[in-house]
Amino acid sequence: MSALARLLREIGLGEEALRKLSRANIRSLESLAFMSSRRLAEALGIDEPTAEGLIKRAREMIGLELMDLLEYLERNRMRFDIFTTGSHALDNLLGGGIPTHHLVELAGPFGSGKTQLCHQLCVTVQLPQSEGGLESGAVFIDADGTFRPERIIRIAKRFKLDGRSVLRRILYARVLSFAEQYSALVRSRKFLEKGIRLVVLDSLSGLVREEFGGDLIRRQEALARLLMEARSLAEGGASVVITNQVTVNMKTGELVPVGGLILPQAVDIRILLLKEKGDRREARIVHSVVLPEGKATFRILDGGIVDVE
Ligand SMILES: Nc1ncnc2c1ncn2[C@@H]1O[C@H](COP(=O)(O)OP(=O)(O)OP(=O)(O)O)[C@@H](O)[C@H]1O
Ligand SMILES: [Mg+2]
């Protein structure tokens, strides 16, 4: 019996409660210990003080109250893999490439290269390990309708891969509503076991903004649901890459990714892509809990994203 099941049994809850938690993405004592009592109360249909007690007990059981730092490090040490973006400059900026087990946000204005980079990552993740890939497939959830298989074929050719085989290893879903987008994300989970290591959400917020318009609370709620699911895919071992639009801050003139406050908290690496002269682009890490801030330049050519010579 799992530790989580034991804890539930302690307070007289059984299998059904376990299933309810699993539906809310809570599958371990650790995730239970970190959730809010309100969410737990909702998920289990219990009152909030009972939920609080349950969380407290979970924290005790995993020894969260006091833990020496070495033990903490061992428990939280992430064993993640890295795959190349196909550009040395971008790889260096990212500390080697795109990491699995992480949520990466590509934000930027129209035409800055977000979708192009997503296309390319669906190819480079398939490269043999000797060439910086993970030899795995990808899921592409297209909310903008801008995915082009022809681009994949061009990019595959540049990496000397067979276009048709590369396309076969990309699972594609064109989604037209928030509900479809969320459901595609949930359904991606079962492909993790089948060797998918990259899940692309292009874009994260377009449909949510369209559907919920000025209703800020519902917008944030919808984004939070997508992000929670994305996080759970990352925890399951995928790189989750999301794209996002930007707006201009009227006071400072700065470009700011949309999505309010929850996004920067939810993503591990936020990259801002900017259009420079001609085919030149700049990528900047503007927020990350795992990497220093930095910049890199790249170009977009017919064969995809390349370094500036
Ligand atoms: N075959 C190609 N050869 C060279 N450059 C290309 C090619 N296809 C697209 N591009 C470049 O990519 C740009 C579009 O980039 P992309 O679609 O990734 O933008 P985006 O950041 O996703 O924008 P949006 O916010 O509209 O989704 C085009 O403006 C063009 O400069
Ligand atoms: Mg795009």
Quick overview:
With 309 residues, this protein is α/β, with parallel strands linked by helices.
Note the topology:
Layout: H1 3-10, H2 15-23, H3 29-33, H4 37-44, H5 48-61, H6 69-76, E1 82-83, H7 88-93, E2 98-99, E3 103-107, H8 114-124, E4 137-142, H9 149-158, H10 163-168, E5 170-174, H11 178-192, E6 196-202, H12 206-212, H13 216-235, E7 239-244, E8 246-248, E9 255-257, H14 262-266, E10 269-275, E11 280-288, E12 294-301, E13 304-307
Q: How far apart lie the N and C ends?
A: 58 Å
Identify the bound ligands: adenosine-5'-triphosphate, magnesium ion
What is the CATH architecture annotation of the largest domain?
A: 3-Layer(aba) Sandwich
Number of strands: 13
Order of helices and strands: HHHHHHEHEEHEHHEHEHHEEEHEEEE
Specify the CATH class of the largest domain: Alpha Beta
Biggest sheet: strands side by side, in what order? 5-4-6-7-3-10-11-12-13
Q: How much helicity do the residues have?
A: 40-55%
Number of domains: 2
Number of alpha- plus pi-helical segments:
14
CATH superfamily of the largest domain: P-loop containing nucleotide triphosphate hydrolases
Strand percent estimate: 15-25%
Low-pLDDT regions: none
Gyration radius, rounded: 21 Å
Mean pLDDT: 92
Largest sheet: 9 strands, mixed
CATH fold descriptor of the largest domain: Rossmann fold
Give the CA-based shape. globular
Specify the structural class: alpha/beta
Give an overview of the whole structure.
This protein is an alpha/beta fold and 309 residues long. The protein has 2 domains: 3-76, DNA polymerase, domain 1 (Orthogonal Bundle), CATH 1.10.150; 82-307, 3-Layer(aba) Sandwich (Rossmann fold), CATH 3.40.50. It has 14 helices and 13 strands. It has a 9-stranded mixed sheet with strand order 5-4-6-7-3-10-11-12-13, sandwiched between helices. A two-stranded antiparallel ribbon has the order 1-2. A two-stranded antiparallel sheet has the order 8-9. Strand 8 (246-248) and strand 9 (255-257) form a beta hairpin. The N and C termini lie far apart (58 Å). The model has no long low-confidence stretch (mean pLDDT 92). Adenosine-5'-triphosphate is lined by residues 108, 110-116, 144, 146, 245, 300-302.
